[in-house]
Design brief:
Blueprint (H helix, E strand, L loop, with lengths): L7 E4 L3 E4 L12 E4 L5 E3 L6 E4 L7 H5 L1 E3 L5
Parallel strand pairs: 1-5, 1-6
Antiparallel strand pairs: 2-3, 4-5
Length: 73
């Protein structure tokens, strides 16, 4: 059984940062990731999935489950 990521964020840069989202009370320490060749990475703290726009993981399903942003770093 595979669980979906709680939130998917489509980004335009491989280098991203995650702090858990817009609510500081529910956030976590800011962590930085580099999206690998697979085209996505999941945050180790909150499980948000970051998908590189135009990358191999950028599918219609990813777009439906998330929002698109620029560089989140």
């Amino acid at each position: 059984m595979t669980l979906d990521a709680p939130e998917t964020v489509v980004v335009t840069d491989r280098r991203i940062a995650c702090d858990g989202g817009p609510n500081p009370a529910l956030g976590h320490p800011r962590v930085f990731f580099t999206i690998p060749d697979e085209g996505f990475i999941d945050c180790n703290y909150c499980d948000r999935r970051f998908v590189l726009k135009g990358g191999p993981a950028d599918t219609p399903e990813a777009a439906q489950g998330g929002r698109e942003t620029g560089n989140t770093a």
